[in-house]
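Re: your question from the hallway

Yes, I did run it. Sequences:
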Amino acid sequence: ATAADVHVLNWKGYGADEPWAIAAFEKATGNKVVNDFFNSEQEMLTKLRTNPGLYDVVMINAAFNDQAMAEKLIQPIDVSKLPNYADISPDKAGSPMLVRDGKVYGVPWVWGLTALAINEKSFDTPPTSITEMWNEAHKGRVVIRDDAVEAVQFGAIATGQNINDIKDMEAVKAKLTSLMPQIKTFWSSENDWNQMVASNQIDIGTYWSGSADRAKTHFKLPVSLVIPQEGAVAWLDAFSIPVGSKNVTGAEAFINYMIDPKFYVEWVTKVGAPVSANTKAVEALPEDAFNRKVMGDPDVAKRIQFQAPITDTQREAYLALWQQLKVDVK
Amino acid sequence: MATTRILEWLGRLYIWLLLAFLYLPIIIMALMSFNVSPFYQLPFEWTTEWYAALWQNEQLISATRNSLEIAIITTIISVVLGSAASLALFRYDFRGKKILQALLFPPIAIPWLITGTAMLIFFFGVGIGRGLLAILLGHVALALPYVIVVVSARLQTFAPELEEAARSLGANQWQVTRRVTLPWIMPGVIAGGLFAFAVSFDQFVVSYFLSTPGQTTLPVEIYAAIRKGFTPEINAVSTIIIVVSMALMLFAARFFKFGGGK
Amino acid sequence: MQGATASRSGLRSALPLLLPAYLWLTVAIFLPLSAMVFFSFMTDLPLSGKPWAFTLGNYAAFFSQSLYPTLLWASLRLGLEVTLWCIVIGYPAAYVLAKVLKGRSREAIFLLVILPFWSNGLVRIFSWAMVLREGGILDTALNAVLPFKINIDLMYSYPAVIIGLVHSYVPYMVLTCYLTLQAIDDSLIEAGRSLGASRLQMLKRVIIPLSMPGLVAGAALIFVPVVGSFMEPRILGGRTGTFYGTVIEDQFVAVFNWPLGAALSFILLAVVLVILALAAPVLRKAA
Amino acid sequence: MAGVQVSNLSRSFGAHKALDDVSIDFADGGFYALLGPSGSGKTTLLRQIAGFDFPDSGRIAIGGESVERVPVEKRRIGIVFQNYALFPNMSVADNVAFGLSVRGEAKAVIADEVQRALDLVQLGKLGSRRPHQLSGGQRQRVALARAIVTKPRVLLLDEPLGALDKALRVDMQIELKRIQREIGITTIFVTHDQEEALTMSDRIGILRDGRLVQEGPPEEIYDSPKSEFAATFLGDANILRGDTTGTGIRLPDGTTIAAGAGVSLAAGTKASCAVRPERIRIAIDAGVPDQTYANLLKGQVSKRIFAGNNSTYFVERDSQTIKVIVQNTGIERLVEGQDVMLSWSPESTVLIAAS
Amino acid sequence: MAGVQVSNLSRSFGAHKALDDVSIDFADGGFYALLGPSGSGKTTLLRQIAGFDFPDSGRIAIGGESVERVPVEKRRIGIVFQNYALFPNMSVADNVAFGLSVRGEAKAVIADEVQRALDLVQLGKLGSRRPHQLSGGQRQRVALARAIVTKPRVLLLDEPLGALDKALRVDMQIELKRIQREIGITTIFVTHDQEEALTMSDRIGILRDGRLVQEGPPEEIYDSPKSEFAATFLGDANILRGDTTGTGIRLPDGTTIAAGAGVSLAAGTKASCAVRPERIRIAIDAGVPDQTYANLLKGQVSKRIFAGNNSTYFVERDSQTIKVIVQNTGIERLVEGQDVMLSWSPESTVLIAAS
Ligand SMILES: Nc1ncnc2c1ncn2[C@@H]1O[C@H](COP(=O)(O)OP(=O)(O)OP(=O)(O)O)[C@@H](O)[C@H]1O
Ligand SMILES: Nc1ncnc2c1ncn2[C@@H]1O[C@H](COP(=O)(O)OP(=O)(O)OP(=O)(O)O)[C@@H](O)[C@H]1O
Ligand SMILES: NCCCCNCCCN
Ligand SMILES: [Mg+2]
Ligand SMILES: [Mg+2]
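Structure:
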């Protein structure tokens, strides 16, 4: 990475690679953005491990920040270089997942939900309960993401448990087992979801809030997000600077740009996005914007549960459970 | 004679049915590259916007160029090395030959995902790193077993006394190979080359692990694009590639007889 | 008489021809895979900076959970089914190409069979989704010609996986069989028929045995990767798309448990090699 | 039951006429030798009869029935290919067993018959070998065993004994004749061995450039060739050319040659006389004039070639070389350079229209 | 410059000894015929000389130098394979041109030489054909042209004329001899045609079961076979068995046969006499007793077989069939069933130790 390049590692299609945004950033700072992508958090970590010095900015789900720090993959950030950092909502900025020994390892960017989304054509009135997923009427028209952690945490919510401290695993397993016959397929990318809705193959399924927003805003699909009364999984995505970055200044500039209200508003309007961690950015949205009105609703805030880091052992146990469920329906 | 004709006719019909099966998804792909909906939605609405968009998409174009270059180089290297190895395995007997032959299967049998990861780690460890060169290194290795298996299958049908005849006429090993053996196994070499090209050109997993931003290939681009939200630009570029290769191949078929004339 | 020629000078003559290919394979495949073998005996990856130790646990895991043998069995069955379909569909086509079609059209068709191979696998799978789903091309086309209404929704099912895989792999069978079929001297076929053999008997007794090297090569090139496949099953199989390859993928992608993933892969490799070794004498006898 | 009639058969490869209006009636149960120079269409003719290849025009009937619509495997023929065409994937025994086994014979019966056939071709012990482990002659014998073991109606043999030494060849000839007689197989046989053709066959047909030039019993063709080509192709012949006298010819130097066989021709036209080398007496002096050996020529021995049971003398006269075969009885050999007198009877002289 | 010496050559295939301690000195520029029954090891021997296959023991020298380490392509041999081994991917002309072109000759030179070689084998017009478009005999001639066009030091011919008709065969024999003499190629020639072997070669070697049984100039082998096998294998022979009298044998019925050739044996041991069928005089009466035809036997004609220039009479006597060849001079034919007197000279009788 030459000094003028900023190498960014992020999900594909997740804001940082929007052409208009890059153009604006490059114009403003003279840095050139080079994007690389990952398809799972594990893969992101592997890329960091096997490419020391290649990346300048990496987007990490806060639940994984811990691991990245432990492995010394990311370095502390001098937040004084980020003018917009001051506007980050304090509860996010102070998240113990991102701050260690007083040093900031991750700059909160956006947060969102893994909740439900529906095909508007299949519902006269949107459902309010997570149990809609088990409704016989939707048999064979339900989707869920092919991700063990999400599936198990979804099961925890459906059985009224704390996603970060699941006491009754058997109940989760039983609940998910009874969900399996409802399932059409397991989705793994936004595109899967959108195509299935477009061809009217599904009624309901788990979905990410930002993605549902994009489906509606950008692709004009009949999709709307449902935050069930039982609650939903919330996650926080943050930016970090990998150890060995050759362009820390550029990285800081980029991160600052990413949390800028101007960028955020444009992103939401043109493409659709999760909720910004920058309170000013959210306030810059129209009053009735979903990300402001619904996501900002204190009632919603009470229902959602933020993901905490999980251990490798837990992750493997979740995967084993998930795989067993998938084998059992074969 | 009558039955022969009927069978011949049925044979032709069968081939056309097979081609229909093989081309069905390709045709759909081509059609969808002209459809407005990025989600394969019907009814069909004609547009060329995706081709226009493709034209603007430098990343996709450069990835396509990388893919083509790597596939062509992979094909050449793996065909040369693979054919040479096949010849050696055919001509000579030595201890451990069975093992060498068995060693061709791990690259095929182990899911590419594992091989790709292994390459990533190993290349990282020994300092080869990632990038187009690493991709090429990996692709050739993946294609080699295909070439060797296919060329060996063809070699089994070769009559060794033809080599003897050529040598008795004073031809050295190389002349024998080039003028007698190669022409006979040519259909196998070509099939091997076509496979090698396919292995490389459609190689996602290994390329995915070995590519770096900017040094990436078309399948990696496509995979990434699909996650975001598929755009028919990908159908468009795929359609262009298929149409151009078809034209090239039919052109080649006119002038070059490699079906293995008797 | 050919045995004598073959054994002539052995390894020394073979080496210059073998070395480049095997050297390449060593650097790009064998050494990396050896590292993987090494990993498969570890408790944790050194890469993650955690302490690690040697263990057989990853291999033991295969046997301690019914999940893995069940899936391996399912994958082997899938491999077998796809291979058989490829033979059933591909062999006759190869025969027609090699023995019925004459002249230029043969070369052209030969190439046309390979061409779909050059299109992107993912794009192809997506196209299949378009064909197979409810309200897709197949459904619509059938309902257009059939007098009664049926619902064809093959998408996200085992048949969809088979169709997708057969489509991806059948060219291997066509081409490898073509290569050996084309080399069969017509006078052998004439000889057999003059002895009273019907076309079917000729096929069974002479043509198939003589084309066996191609059939075997094709079968190996299909069976082996299909057993480890994960992409097509995942996308086309839906709920039923979990196979041995997909759980290996999960170990690598979802939980970063490479040691277990590698162990599972090498178990797969061992099983595949044992199957090939067991099949070899049977096939050689048939040939 | 299974004679073979070919009528007006023609077959071209591109511009080249490999068969040109050939009609032959192969009698049921007969033994027919097909002779002709290399490339004259012998193999092509056999392939039409077998049904591997189809004539451009003309008809083929086996056992009185047209076989136009009868596929190869229903024609009940046995064939020995010029290149043997053994199945490389089968053992020798399996090659021979093939015809019986596709017919569904019992295993035990097959084993028996195969062993008998292999014994017959003196390969009884090589049943388990693969074709590539055999010598040329051994392969040829396997091909022969394979063709006869099914007891076909018609046997098409394309130089079936060409790769065998004389002793084995004679043995095989005897076996072939025996089988052919016993089962009454109509046999059509291509050979380049003249003695074989003459000794084995009931009739001989000679092809040239795709056309049938002469056809008949061996001795008839040998004794009364209808053309110079036939005379020199089957057996050896000295051809003397001149003007017909009606009962013979007058050579350019005025000598007349009396002919007792062949066509009658109007005097004065160009004609040839063919004389077999073995019919000519060679002597140092003319001896007592002998009415029988009425034709007389003087010459000088230029060469003698030893050929086992006989020798050929090349005698020069008037810029023509005349060949004389003399049995090697162990006495009276002539030396090169010697002046000699050649004499032969008019009965040994065949008058042939100039070609 | 390029004689070929093989010394104590052995080669086994599994338990089968294809060559068993064979030593032959093929003289430089000589024409050597290799005879032997099918499977006796002829092809195997040629393959060792060519360097396609390697002996288990023994040595081979070409031009006085051991060729153990000389690869095929450096041995400068020409070879005609029993099955031709033409390159299927090349035209006839390219097949023939191959040897010259790998040597890097100029295009024009090659074209010239190839045309000459093709003309020589009478295929001048078929240069552009592919091998599969040729008849059997045409293919064989291409193989021959391909082998000789490079003017090798040693020519190894495995039945190179087997698929040719007599006339063409004779033409090719003449050409082969001419080339061989002109360039002085050492030629080793496998043939099953006895006449060919006898007329063309300087020396003949007879193989049997991998062993060399006799070796020498044609007439010597023909006239003085050293074994019953040699006597009957090359040419035909009547073998009479009995006890030696020292200068002949006494048959079981007491008749004595005087032998003027062959070995001398101690009286009383078992021995055989070999008599060539053409050496026997056949007559209706004994005629004037003739000192020359001292050996006399009575018999009865059982069969006559016409073979063109001669006929063979089968004469039965004392449960043995004696073959007599009589030249077809056109007169005096005996009928079957006739009582006859057979006589031949002691000089025509070869005494052979019992085998
Ligand atoms: N690869 C082999 N394996 C086993 N036996 C073999 C092999 N090659 C040749 N033989 C045997 O060796 C012997 C000699 O074979 P060779 O080909 O030299 O015979 P030949 O004299 O050329 O006979 P022919 O006149 O029939 O061609 C034969 O009995 C043959 O069966
Ligand atoms: N496929 C072909 N294409 C062109 N010409 C051919 C083809 N097959 C045969 N011929 C020609 O047809 C003629 C007759 O061939 P055929 O094989 O019948 O000859 P043959 O009498 O059997 O000769 P031989 O004694 O040499 O085997 C030959 O001149 C040959 O070159
Ligand atoms: N296609 C980009 C989607 C990014 C969503 N991030 C969600 C993280 C959930 N663990
Ligand atoms: Mg022929
Ligand atoms: Mg031989």
